[in-house]
Design brief:
By secondary structure, the protein is α/β, with parallel strands linked by helices. It contains ten helices and five strands; from the N terminus they run βαβαβαβαβαααααα. It has two domains: 125 residues, 3-Layer(aba) Sandwich (Rossmann fold), CATH 3.40.50; 92 residues, Winged helix-like DNA-binding domain superfamily/Winged helix DNA-binding domain (Arc Repressor Mutant, subunit A), CATH 1.10.10. Strands 2-1-3-4-5 form a five-stranded parallel sheet, with helices on both faces. The protein starts with a strand and ends in a 9-residue tail after the last helix. GO terms for molecular function: DNA binding. InterPro entries: CheY-like_superfamily, NreC/VraR/RcsB-like_REC, Sig_transdc_resp-reg_C-effctor, Sig_transdc_resp-reg_receiver, Tscrpt_reg_LuxR_C, WalR-like. It comes from Streptomyces finlayi.
Length: 220
C-alpha cells in the first residue's frame, strides 16, 4: 500500500526538500503541497491524503487550526496529521494534540525518523515519545482546557491500566508485556478504550490519561 502524503509548510524550499525525501521511499508518494493552512485543509480533501505533514507556523490559517478542521471533518476521518515544530514551539504541541494531531516531530529530525513517523501515523498509531510528551502535558495542565474526549469513569479496571500505559507512550507490544497479555489482546483493549472515550487515535488517549490523573507528569 502506498501512503499518500500531503506536505504543508510555508517555506517552498522546505517543502521541496521534504518532497524529495518522501518520494525516495518506495511506499510513499507526495499527492500535494500547501503553503498555508487553508490550502492544507482543502488539499487534504481533494488529494485524499493519508498523512498530512503539517508545519505549525503558517500564514492565513496556522497548522493547529488547520489540524482542527481536518480532524472535525467526518469525510476526512482517515486522514492523519503529523505536526512539525521547532524546539521553541513546545507550548503549541498540546494544542496540536487536542486539535487532533497524531503526533509531532521537530524539523531537524533525521530523515529516516520522519519517514518512519509518517508510516507510524498512517498505520493509526501515535508518534509520542514518553519524555517530551510528559513534559509538554505537564506544562499544558498548568492552564488546562476542557477535555475533547470522555473521561475514564466508564472503563474497566484492566482498561484503565491499559490507558495509563498508553498515556506513558507504550505501544501495543509494550503494553502486552507490561500486563502479561498477548499483543492482540492489548490491541483489542486499546480499540475498545478508543471507542468508549470517542478518541480519534492514541494521541487523544494520552491526553485523557494525563487529564484524568491516571498518569502524573514526571511520575515515570
Amino acid at each position: 500500500m502506498t501512503i499518500r502524503v500531503l506536505l504543508a509548510d510555508d517555506q517552498t524550499l522546505v517543502r521541496a526538500a521534504f518532497a524529495v525525501l518522501v518520494e525516495s521511499a518506495r511506499d510513499m508518494e507526495v499527492v500535494g503541497q500547501a503553503g498555508t493552512g487553508r490550502e492544507a485543509v482543502a488539499l487534504a480533501a481533494s488529494a485524499r491524503a493519508d498523512v498530512v505533514v503539517m508545519d505549525i507556523r503558517m500564514p492565513d490559517l496556522d497548522g493547529i487550526a488547520a489540524t482542527r478542521l481536518i480532524a472535525a471533518d467526518e469525510d476526512l476521518a482517515g486522514v492523519r496529521v503529523l505536526v512539525l515544530t521547532t524546539y521553541d514551539t513546545d507550548e503549541h504541541i498540546m494544542a496540536a494534540l487536542r486539535a487532533g494531531a497524531s503526533g509531532f516531530l521537530v524539523k531537524d529530525t533525521h530523515p529516516a525518523v520522519l519517514l518512519d513517523g509518517i508510516r507510524t501515523v498512517a498505520a493509526g498509531e501515535s508518534l509520542l515519545s514518553p519524555g517530551p510528551t510528559a513534559r509538554l502535558i505537564a506544562r499544558a495542565l498548568r492552564a488546562p482546557e476542557a477535555p475533547s474526549t470522555g473521561g475514564p469513569e466508564g472503563l474497566s479496571g484492566r482498561e484503565r491500566e491499559v490507558l495509563a500505559l498508553v498515556a506513558r507512550g507504550l505501544n501495543n507490544t509494550e503494553v502486552a508485556e507490561a500486563l502479561g497479555l498477548s499483543p492482540l489482546t492489548a490491541k483489542t483493549h486499546v480499540s475498545r478504550i478508543m471507542g468508549k472515550l470517542g478518541a480519534r487515535d492514541r494521541a487523544q488517549l494520552v491526553i485523557v490519561g494525563y487529564e484524568s490523573g491516571l498518569v502524573v507528569p514526571g511520575g515515570g
